[in-house]
Amino acid sequence: SNEKVRLEAIRSWRDVAIAGDLDDLLDFLVKAKSAEERTALQKAVLVADEKLPDNTPKSKKILIKISQTKEIAAQAALIEILGKIGDPMSLPAVYTAIESKSMEIRIAGTRAIGDWPDATPIKDVYKIASTSTDEKQRILAIRGYIRMISLADKYGPEEKIKAYQDAMNLAKSTAEKRSVLAGVSQMATVNSLKFVEKYLKNPQLKEEAAAAVLSIGLKLSDEFADDVKPALETLLTVTANDDFKQKALNRINSIEKFEDHITLWEVSGPHGMKNISLFDYKFDPEKGKGEWKDMPAGLEKEKYWYMAINLVFGPLVKAAYLRNEVWSPVDQKVRMELGSNDAIKVWLNNKLVHSNNVARPCEPGQDIVDVKLKKGWNRIMFKVVNMGGGWGASLRFRNTEGRKLEGLKVRLVK
Questions:
Q1: How far apart are CA 125 and CA 119, in angstroms?
Q2: Spatial contact of 104 and 76, defined as CB atoms under 8 Å apart
Q3: How far apart are CA 132 and CA 293, in angstroms?
Q4: DSSP category for residue 404
Q5: pTM, rounded to two decimals
Q6: C-alpha triplet 279, 283, 288: angle, nearest 5°
Q7: Residues 149-159: tens digit of each pLDDT
């Protein structure tokens, strides 16, 4: 048949290959008339080999076929298959190929060992990458080495970082260095973060480094916030990727979740009345009246940001009000981040800016409201309605991107 029809037939055979086809497939591969046919038959052999019983020596027939053929291109194609299968009994044949006088066989052996499905030959692959004088062989070896580091289950985190550093030292091209960064990004440790962070300022690697920093920074817990936050801050200054920026900002905001909450308040309450909606009824503070007293801060340990009204008045089904004044150095649009237990209303400079009739435990930033602070003092008042159990609220201001807002001051109402 003509070459095009032969190639299509081989590809079809590959798709339906069964274990019984292996001998025939190997014969056809040895007799293949082109590189395209050999590639298609390599894939067909792998399909057939996968269907052999697990207790069958996976490489035995291929090793026999290598010993029987004198055609260099066919030998090389068979050796490459050994690397995909990864049968330990075939490693000696692969090592022999790597030392062959034939360049084509040496390259096939290097490709085979670099494609090995586990990290068994990782030290040998590194040796080839670090000592070979042939550039093609070196490239194949370092690609295999970088890939195998992630497969090296016997390596601890520090050993893997050292291995990646060795790979980076060997890497000559930008593509190889990018592959190293991609590999390190799969490790969620402080040292892996520090490793990739070093390359954020490298013009050729900054976007890959940014992707790696982001990947690791999203995986590390807040326990490592002191390391994660500065790395993400640096990322924001170098990346042109808007998606990276937004994800980095979101992660920084989550780290800063408990920062800068206002804890200086006055409280009025408890307020209640039978047969009315506590949420809708206008008690004295909404009419500019009522009595106020200092609201104690830090009543709940490890929740400095939470104004625990129930620890002042008890767990009553009532309403209470909180108020203070916030100084802004300029007119500015800001984000007001609120938490409440339970329902909440908020007035800014005597204007209702938020209302949420909800039953929930309080967490920082449950409600986010865009508001405008005027230059000078701005009066804030909360209404917090308890529906049972916990009772309290939280507030902080951030800039429109959710970052720290500079220059704010807080005082009790004059």
A1: 10
A2: yes
A3: 79
A4: B
A5: 0.73
A6: 130
A7: 999 999 999 99
